[in-house]
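User: These chains co-purify. Model them together.
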Amino acid sequence: MDLVSTAVIRQRLKSNYSIRYRSISIDEGNVEIIYDEALCDVKFISQHVIMPILNKNKTIINTKMVSKEIITSASVGYIQSNDEAVMHILSGDAVLIFDFLSKAVYCSAAGFPRRNMDSPPTDTVIKGPREGFNEVLQDNISAVKRRLKDPNLRFETLEIGSKSKTQAVIAYIEGNAPEKVVNYIREKISEITADYLFYIKGVEEKLFAHNTTFDTIGYSERPDVIASRLAEGRVAVFLDGTPIVITAPYFFVENFHVTDDYTMDKFTSYLGIVLRWAAFLASVLLPGIYISLFAYHFNLVPFSFIFHMAASRAGVPFPLIVETLLMLTFFQLLREGGVRLPQPIGPTLSIVGALILGDAAVSSGLTSHVTVLVVAVTSIASFLTPRVSISVFYWDVIILIFSGLLGLPGFYMGFVLFVSRISSLTSCGYPYLYPLGTLRTLKLNDVIFRSDIADISQYVFAKDDAE
Amino acid sequence: MKIKMFCLLSACVFMLTSCYNYKEINQEYFATAIGIDIDDNNNFNIIVEAFVASRSGEQGRGQKQGIQQSILFRKEGKTLFEALRKINMNARYKVNYMLNKAIIVSEKAARQGMNDFLDMFFRDQEFLIRQYIFIYDGDIAELLNIETKEDPYVGIFLYSLMMNKAATVDTSNATFGEFMINRSIGSKINLINKLYLEQGPDIKEIGINKLAVIKDDKMVGELNLEEGRTYNLIKNFSFTGLFSVPHPAIPGKLVTLEALGSKTKTNIYYDGEIIHVKKTIKANTSFVLSEGPIDLESKAVREQMIAEVSKKIVDDSTKLFNKYKDMEIDIFNLKAEIQKKYPELVADKDFLENVKLEVIPEIKIEGSTDLTNYNL
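Assistant: Joint model of the two components:
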């Protein structure tokens, strides 16, 4: 009895417009070639599968002979069930069913349109490589492999989604990456029970240890970044169909680093990192300090500024805290609108929002100049660390409410809560604030000031395993 | 744990708010100067100059920016606090004294004694100690009502005046906090700047022309600015003023040296009868003006100038000390210094009889950039 039946496959793949069935009659019998035209390179099938079968000068006696002597495709294998055959067809392989042989054969013939590996728009660099991931798993892995010719580099394949059969790859360098992190990630991914998985967020959420707005799992669209993180000892997860590759563990301090910190001279990167830290602190704390000082502790502000502020707020109908919350919300509306609108319109909205709305808000008596300035500075500062900008907004509101209730003591309470929250987060078992606030030897030599490239951290987790 | 944390935070919210009240900045009037006078019935007359922000009245301009203006409030009361409270009765918003810059006391009130009301400024949390105190012999309302060229608020103008080192080199630079400290140590002597108001080429101008001597919170005398300079030198307030002395070669002409800074060391010893208070004044000076040709390279000329300046300092300080000694006033508050070494010697009310002030000036003329070793 045939293990693979054309009739069964036809039944299983009915109403599937791109599936092609090509029958060839040869001396030994009929050969049915089934492939998905949308996923396969038709020219390749003609040249390397159909033509060799038609032009053969030997009699086919078994599938082994087909794979070894006739088909010239690089990847050939045997199929022993209808399920297997369907899976291969849907993965872009050509399946050959011989009515005179019991087993079927598949050969790789994938060929579908793929995006160029262009520089990712969300992570541009001035002096670094211009390559970015695309949606094809093989291309992405190849881009990383070209950068890491380490024989210990491992790529473990997993299948996620019981129906979507999405391929995921866990990448790490054996010896550099802590075993416990690899096991943790492997275990967590295997726990995913979804039928379909389209975005890597599904994996990321499984790896999160906490409900938080902070990214405790890193991501990048750049092969150079992923390669360097793998070299440090982190673990990366690739998912077919997405250009985003996630890495774990991911630490808070990494929010303040960009690729250019390692491609430009170290003095430029000093400035960049210090600016990002300062901007982050300003964006989290500025609204709270503003409310504390201007609603409670006037005596801590230079009198000339107080006078200007009072004149600026004369006639504003809302309390300062309501006014600030209102403006922060306006800004979030603008941000969301700018992000969702198509690219050519987005910048126009930003300009309209920034110039017109701010001025109109002041003219209409809804807010004061200083509040617009404070919210604008807060918002611009939050753009320097875009990965935490949403977290910054949430904490702005929390600290703002505390400051509005208690003045500076409330502001301190809000700040302590904020620091406590970050301190309590973990990423794959490592403290999120690592190496800040830990007693471990500081191995990340680029927390605030980047050292020379030769001296910066190479194996971040190596000693921890030995401990 | 979360419930405990919530309870703790809630407790803080409700328990700490008594000290800190939410205030809307545009719903406060900020006092910039307080004038204090007393009438014949010993009632307090209070004049408060306040900053007031209000909506722009211009049509068609939208809100944009409110108007800043100065408003004077005037009230009477049996006590200072009562008068200040009355001000709020006809003010749209509460007057806030947190940013007050100047307390102006009438000479009449100062001579009668200030201890009735100074306590309130020190005790009340709203008044800060970094404001300045002045005395004015005249109508305080008129003083606070004039338009200064530089600032619409007289209180702010006076504060800026005190920040201007060139304007206050011969005056007292003590803040209200320092004044309050001095009123409780040693002989309890304080100097307060006296304001004057006079017609300038354009509008009326305010300035400091004298210093009131305050003893036990009562005004007991006045110093002119030259005496103020001597006072600052003796009291080790880094002096950066001018010394004008006779020209070493041309009679009737003057030369001027500018002090770049001074430091005064005090050495006290008691010989059994007399308490010797030795004040060594080290001052670096720079030659700034001569009313005729002068040979600065001549050591004799330089020494003569130094001798003249030294003589002037000694004469002025001795004269000032003795003038007030005769009035039984320890003008330099030497009691506070002697007390540290010989507390038993100043216990007597008449201790000043036994005090001898010795002033030793050590003046140095610094050279210019192209002339070094000037003092060799």
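The longest strand of chain B covers residues 254-270.
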